[in-house]
């Protein structure tokens, strides 16, 4: 009988320990969910200084874009000069949930942006079949380049995460962010100021 009591006490203690560990894991998951929500909302929960530590995914405003040469999916050579004085550039990676969330907004914004398809560059990072759907969605509104991770266009723009949106003016970054609305707002302001 003493063995049964000892076994029940041991099982009870293990159950209590398991419950405490589960509560700790749930608490940590809630913290991570809150941090992820803050990142996806553009860092609204953080001040601008804190945002710069986790919001940057490309070169900072005022930085010169590096030289690059690439080939578009239609076979045409591509350089920064190909896109005029004020290109809009978007970087996407298939399988990236934030990229999928931002892609329809980019397509819509790019379609409505003055200057035509030749003022927009979309870079899809990946290879083969995984990029096909993204390329198909972007091709009507932008020149599309497919390159591997760490490719020449990503290096020229200092891309460290996806999605990344960059607005360039005369070879200098005027806006960059992982949320399209931040770049689109700067673009709209610049276009209205220009006339």
From TrEMBL:
Record-annotated Thioredoxin domain positions: 59-195
PROSITE patterns found in the cross-reference section: THIOREDOXIN_1, THIOREDOXIN_2
Alphabetical list of InterPro entries matching this protein: Thioredoxin-like_sf (IPR036249), Thioredoxin_CS (IPR017937), Thioredoxin_domain (IPR013766)
Family matches, as CDD domains: TlpA_like_family
Top-level division of the source organism's lineage: Bacteria
SUPFAM superfamilies associated with the record: Thioredoxin-like
The protein's name: Thioredoxin domain-containing protein
Biological source species: Nonomuraea coxensis DSM 45129
